[in-house]
Amino acid sequence: MEREIAIFTPNLLDWEGKKPVIGGLERYIRALAELLTDMGYAVSFHQNAHRDFQTTYLGWPVYGYKADPQHLNVTIERIEKSVPGRVLYSSILQQVYYRPGSICISHGVWWELPGSSPAMARAAYENHVAAALLQASLIISCDYNFLNVARAIYPNLAGRKIQVIPNFVDLKRFYPREGSGGKRIRVLYPRRLSRERGFTLLQAVIPNLLAAYPELEFQFAIDTNTPRYLEAFHAWRQGEAHNERLLYCHPDFDAMPGVYADADIVVIPTIYSEGTSFSCLEAMAMGKAIIATNVGGLTNLIIDNYNGLLIHPTAEYLAQALRFLIEHPLERARLGKNAAATARVFDRKLWEARWRQFINKVYPLG
Amino acid sequence: MSAKKVALLTTNFFHPSSKRIIMGGAERYQVDLCRLLKDLGYYVEVWQIGSGWTREFDGVRIRSIPVTKSEYNTFPDLATAFYENSMAFDYALYFILTLAYPIAREKSIAISHGVFWDWPGFDLMAGKPEDRQEWLRRLSIALAGPQKLVSVDTNTINYFNATLAGFYHKWEYIPNYVDTDLFSPPAEEPAGNDTVRVLFPRRLVPVRGINETMRAAEKLTSRYPWIEFHFCGRGHDDNAERLMNQWAGNRERCFYYWKPLEMMPEIYRQADIVLIPSRSTEGTSLAALEAMACGKPVIAGLAGGLSDIILHGYNGYLIKPTVENLVAAIEELARDKDKRKLMGRRAREVALTFNRKIWAERWARVLEEVFR
Fold it and tell me: What is residue B354's predicted lDDT score, i.e. its pLDDT?
């Protein structure tokens, strides 16, 4: 019993329980489950599903619980009631209830949708952040930004309950190397095609840039999780004047180093809801010239003009930053070199060592 | 064409009733900003709280407005009197965000020097939920008036986007700056000295981690005969300074003093490790940037904008500034000269991107957008 830890998560596998979902949260909890297993814990996953299922993934039992996307709280409650013992809550925004002696993970501030009202914002932090602060033993935040925002709202509790462990990059897989090269300047967008990730911001600046720079091309490394995003992407791409220079691919995780290697510039144009982005960390480790926005945990990775460009998320600033890097190859090289150097302090081994301390403290063995 | 006139509103550049002035980070920022405005061809005056006196500082006229009322950290009477009396000025700068409440000049910019409500004591001021909401409501009005909001760190922008998201488009991140010619690493290594000198270059106030640092100094100086602690900064009053003198006087290798700004580069150069262990209320600390520019590794608290300038384990450390964590971080650097040098070299590299010239260019761009 004592060795068992149940990880509650929205979707490690798809809702059929068949395919692993590609995303940052999923990679995070997989890495955490590997660490827990290594430390001697018996890990199980509990997630949403179209209908109840039980399967295994990489040797771990995975339990699916029938869920209605409109009423996820019902499923959350059912999972909470049916699983005894120690729980690790993989995402603060999924939960509202925490049992004593548990850890909850924050993957960054998520509710700062531009134009949302103070009341909407308040509902997010009062329902989710306050609950975690009051009930969980510990909140592990993947960035300093969440800690600082939470402390500015809840000065008393946040400073005590939140610890920061920035996200990691596996330096054995991601390191600077030559790409297939060529005369083209390739800009890579390695993100989900969603609004919060800044896809629309990038769309806005692409036509002028493609027209101005014949040697420029864009590569979209995108997942296939959301069919409607893909449809919209293709509809947009078809209508673009220089779409022969709008490339796309659907790489699995193992192919990503090669995708980064072939790029000259990587854009992380997040508008809201961001932690210490894996894409950003991987691009850093690959020694790429990065343009990131001053949103969430990106500010804890990129220091403007040192290891990348850190911009306010507007189309104007994005276009300006892209033009600058397109026209200044030496600056690309300088920023990329510093990016690779700074990525080393986000080595996966350091992340594991920090997590070990907190796991030992909250879930002691024997 | 005569120069366009800019009025800058602040609370207490001078103490309202005396000539006492302590040049802290905010005061230096204000002087530098006024110089920049003059360089750009503007005529500038400063307005603040006072009995109605007028003074001059660094070639800038400083007027005072006789008001005292302050509620929820806002100064509605001051802001209103300023609004009415500064009509002859073309543009306004609100040096503190909350001064733009309840009314702000149309062509104006407000500045945030960092979140200052993230410490437990703030609860005494606005702890009750309705007070908290009133505070936020006033902030939302303060944010609504000026055309641009300038923040010295990304934390403030992210905080406001997470609470008052409607002002998303107004924010500009202009981090603090350092004169990297003045603040520069020592020309050569001091020879044959094994002493490790730890410097605390802040005011002697709890929020800056003074109490934790004193305790860490007691532990480390008794553990290692080769470690020294230097506390360099003013107290908030004579008594705090006298107590600090007594404490340091009774301890081996603990020193207390303060120095004028022009001597600070040398103070940093003589240090091996610099501490900025803020608990909260922090922006992109000038002291941290100056230490970095002098090629020193910085051990910093996890507060405000410090995570905009320090990458944990790269050019310094970001820690929760408990006694235990401070001792561990100082010990690690104190015992590893190579690591100190590597982090110090990187700190200098990073500091170069916060060069004062870049700060001036960023400000010029924002001023040009609003003041026209």
Answer: 98
Give how far B98 is from chain A: nearest CA, Å: 16
Q: What would the pLDDT profile of B266-314 be if each residue is shown by its tens digit?
A: 999 999 999 999 999 999 999 999 999 999 999 999 999 999 999 999 9
Provide the shortest C-alpha distance from residue B113 to chain A (in Å): 14
pLDDT tops 90 at residue B341: yes
Q: Which residues of chain A have pLDDT under 50?
A: none
Taking the CA of residue A120 and the nearest CA in chain B, the distance in Å comes to 9
Burial class for B236, CB neighbours closer than 10 Å (0-12, 13-18, 19+): exposed
User: What's the average model confidence in pLDDT over B10-19?
Assistant: 84
Residues near A81 by beta carbon (within 8 Å), at least 6 away in sequence: none
Contact B350 A272 (CB under 8 A): no
Cross-chain residue pair B353–A303, CB shorter than 8 Å: yes
Looking at residue B18, what is its pLDDT?
Answer: 65
CA distance A228 to B248: 67
In B138-197, the residues whose Cβ lies within 8 Å of chain A are 140, 154-155, 157-159, 161-166, 168-169, 171-173, 175
Q: Which domains does chain A have, with CATH numbers?
A: 4-168+348-362 (3.40.50.2000), 185-346 (3.40.50.2000)
pLDDT given for residue B1 in this prediction: 66
d(CA B132, CA B125): 9
Tell me phi and psi for residue B298, to 5 degrees: -115, 130
Two structure tokens written together for B333: 């650097």
Q: What is the pLDDT of residues B31-72, one digit of tens each?
A: 999 999 999 999 999 999 999 999 999 999 999 999 988 888
Asked if B120 lies within 8 A of A155 by C-beta distance, the reply is: yes
Neighbour-count burial of B341, counting CB atoms closer than 10 A to its CB (0-12 exposed, 13-18 middle, 19+ buried): middle
Residues 6+ apart with CB under 8 A from A278: A24, A27, A28, A167, A169
Widest CA span in chain A: 65
> In this structure, what token pair is assigned to residue A126?
């009062």
CB-based contact B173 A115, cutoff 8 Å: no
Who has greater pLDDT, A219 or B129?
A: A219
Structural domains in chain B, sorted by start = 5-177+356-370 (3.40.50.2000), 196-352 (3.40.50.2000)
CB contact under 8 A, A121 and B158: no
